[in-house]
Amino acid sequence: MPLPPPESEQLAATVSNPAARMLYGLLYRRRQRPPSRPEARFFLNTGFPADVDLDRALRDLRASFVIAELSDDEVVRFQLGGWVEHPEPVDDPPISDRLRAEVLAPQRCAQCGSTPLRDAAELDVAYRLPAAWGGVAEPDNLEPLCTQCAVGKRQYMEVHAVHADKIRLAAGYDEPQRRIGELLKAFDGGWVRSDLISMVASAKEYQDDWQRRLRDLRFLGWEYTHEKRHHEGARIWTYYRLVRWQPWPENIHAAIKAEERRRKVMKRARSDSAE
What we know:
Layout: H1 9-14, H2 18-29, H3 37-45, H4 54-62, E1 65-72, E2 75-83, H5 97-104, H6 116-119, E3 123-127, E4 142-146, H7 147-159, H8 164-171, H9 176-186, E5 192-193, H10 194-201, H11 210-219, E6 223-232, E7 235-244, H12 252-274
Antiparallel strand pairs: 1-2, 3-4, 5-7, 6-7
């Protein structure tokens, strides 16, 4: 797969660290004349404070790209190579003819809306979350896609392939709140993009309002923060980061409902006392 251009949405989706993306731009433009460590540090300092961490930026880039260190008269130079070979989703297992007919029944691509009759679209069944990442062959995890959208989705999924182990670990739980919580925990205090949370939340049954399932975590004593990032391609992405977590109760749904009732009683009592 070719390297993404520095200003592309694909790079923004792959590398969240702004300093790392800026460094990538330098390495990309100077692939034939790799910059030295002093040059790279000076370049970063032109756009960020003097204490910007060059090694941190390199580590963040190396999670997705091959960056070789070349020695030239005791001067270390950084050369950008290709993508790191991450495990990619393997072909999903086949599904039964009955399930295939059920998923294709709408006769419309779930992404672009094209149809076989109107647009001569060829539809096939695709996994929302790949089976290799914990997705199951159930109607909620399957969707009809035309050939073009299926190719585009596979390329999009490659962006998240670096997180395959974390996704697979979280996707196996039954409750959507636990799937979301375990995904946030797996990132160990790191930022998690909203589309990845949505994907894992719907691993076993589609969650039309996964944000509500995320908010449910607060009823269990969990705390998280979020931020919007405006400079990652054409879209504005929301990222979430876990701040504090608690052990899971035996019955997650019952625990959430009990805390909701408790808070309503306390709110009503405060309102009555204020009157």
